[in-house]
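Researcher: Following up on the earlier apo prediction. This time include the ligand. It's flavin-adenine dinucleotide, with the SMILES given after the sequence.
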Amino acid sequence: MPGTPLITELRAALGADAVLTDPDLLRMHQRDEADLCAAGTPAVVVRPRTTEEVVAVVRAAAGHGVPVVPQGARTGLAGAANAVDGAVVLSMVAMDEIREIDPVSRIAVVQPGVVNAALARAVAEQGLYYPPDPGSWESSTIGGNVSTNAGGMCCVKYGVTTEYVLGLEVVLASGEVLRTGRRTAKGVAGYDLTRLFVGSEGTLGVITEVTVGLRPAPEQSLTLVAVFDSVASAGDAVARIAAQGLTPSLLELLDRTHLSAIEAYRPMGLRTDAEALLLAAVDTGVRAPGDLARIGEVCTAAGADEVYAATDAVEAAALLQARRLAHPAMEHFAARTYPQGNGGLVIDDVAVPRAALAALLDGVARIAVECDVPIGVVGHAGDGNMHPNIVVDRADPDSVARGRRAFDEIMRLGLALGGTCTGEHGVGLLKRDWLAEEIGPVGVRVHQAIKSALDPAGLLNPGKVL
Ligand SMILES: Cc1cc2nc3c(=O)[nH]c(=O)nc-3n(C[C@H](O)[C@H](O)[C@H](O)COP(=O)(O)OP(=O)(O)OC[C@H]3O[C@@H](n4cnc5c(N)ncnc54)[C@H](O)[C@@H]3O)c2cc1C
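Model: Understood. Below is the ligand-bound prediction.
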């Protein structure tokens, strides 16, 4: 619809090169990486470069009563970035400037389209560290990370994105520009509006600038692998490591399905006969060799049949790379299992208290049998945050129905164990019912009140979260 008054207005405000209506591009911007989630076709994709341009887009869309769907790199795994029919997709990728790195205050100020790894590398050059490291760090954006409150592998020691967001600039649905938070080491003025927008998945405002806190670069880490003949024993080892007061900087679990999928995708000599593998790292400086040895002992006591340390940084990096390949390897596995493009993955993101991890893992194995679907489990075990990956045949409605049943059973189990329906991927479209279940009617009403106070016409990323 190149000629609509809204598109003419957008072209006048942003220039024709930032207002895209090519049907291939519209299709490309329909969805994120989540499988089996509804997605519409946007009327237009805009790529603003400044806050003023974002204001112009939000005001123009509001004037025409058209929804706005913010997007980063579309690596999301909950359908939160999926377009709705006729929407303006607000792609933030062109706002990719690192505006400031201040080693004294240990902060950086960035536009939302900066890619996570680009920020991590830029601050590392100044001896600093931006910890949040989602597996998608080479492509996902800081704006997307903030909007989903992304986690990653280092979160077991360093915490998730919200721990590092000090302040935001946000364009509200009204077109007003709100500044939240601070640049100072401390600051408690007013309600914590910064945290309100972290994890809000584009439903409360469009983030146009982020001030993040940084840490000094960590010590070199040492890495260990523990091999188990049962997934639940690996889960038990995680609880024991925490109970010993140890502070690994990484504690990841891969089950047999994932080990085999990774070996088939990119052979690297992983033990595919093992039921589970724990990957642990410590970065505690002079104490690191001792801490690593204690983690190894705990794993052996929990039933590991082999424990070995990476001999050097190259081997450690290869092990980390194997973990990072889990998602593409499982997509490859699904494609091999159900060829002709029919292999689908429903990715769960349940998090439970660490003490309940073994029970969760046992339960997922039982659900796989009951629902008769292959489920591989991988995840940030140290956080109790697991990603059961349910493999379905998209061409077979019965397979899809069994996959969805397994997804729901895992959610139910996670909540019954005192957990949450999403540890890091967000609610999006995939977990809306389960969010309501988790927070209850009062929680739902408070969410709705906040949404209608900030976006009374419901035009910002409609249908997501609640
Ligand atoms: C291989 C792979 C590995 C992954 N590993 C992890 C992991 O370890 N941990 C983890 O947490 N996630 C992981 N993810 C999921 C995903 O990468 C994260 O959710 C990421 O934060 C999304 O960033 P994005 O830039 O792609 O945002 P998108 O997917 O484009 O958008 C995500 C949400 O943010 C909103 N949004 C984006 N930018 C803005 C903005 N400027 N203002 C307002 N709203 C905005 C969107 O509307 C949407 O609701 C992984 C994904 C893949 C494909």
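Model: The pocket of flavin-adenine dinucleotide is lined by residues 32-33, 70-77, 80-81, 92, 112, 134-136, 140-141, 143-145, 147-148, 150-152, 201-202, 206-207, 327, 424-425, 461, 464 (CB under 6 Å).
Researcher: Noted. I'll compare it with the apo version next.
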